[in-house]
What does this fold into?
Amino acid sequence: MLCDHDLKGTDLPPGTLCLTYDDGPGPRTRELARFLFAEGIRAAFFVIGSVAEKEPGLLRQMADWGHVIGNHTWSHPGLVTLARGGGDVAAEVARCDAVIRPFVRGPLLLRPPYGSWRDKSRPDGPEDAPTSVVAERLRQSGRFADYAGPVKWDIVAEDWECWRRGVDVDEAARRHLEAIERAGRGIVLLHDSSEDEALRERNRTAEMTMRLVPALKARGFRFVGVEEAPQVRAACAAAGGAASGRR
It folds into this structure.
């Protein structure tokens, strides 16, 4: 079910995390996905369709490792701006869907680029409007009834800014560990690549994850797939796309 409201991990039990990665696949996505599999962690990778279409073998391997492959649109636009400008929001989602659907073995999940899903309630205000023009356009298209979204996040320490600014991996890991401990539970936003080609080679999130996971396990955190977050699970059930139902 594509909802007006955000789907987050605030209802997860204390000490429970969902690791999610956006904007890939990137140069080290395979290495990252393999590491997480070896650690018994099912992550979600929200991929950009125009990039992912070049990597069908990687998508298949990620699915075989049990990771969720999610829709992050075809070209990574801000969807509210696209919708308000008369652009084809449905085509952005549909083109990515055509790439990932053969490799999706659980629910079909959508994460909007930049988290762009609703207008601001006031032009200069921090509050989002209660309804989503993006959800409305996608529902009107009649093409995404088996999707759940928007899958958002609870924990962010801006890994992309770390790599943009040249922050070293240990310091980036410290910032993320601090943010996770402060929140105590939730969906973690990370990026295994970037829509900015200049940043792709500088991305060190795979290396950072390899430092974070042992530290988090030592502190008693456990990891579940993002579709197990109660809000996401409810949306999947409403869409008839629960993880065990699509094989």
Remarks:
- Residues 241-247 have pLDDT under 50 and may be disordered.
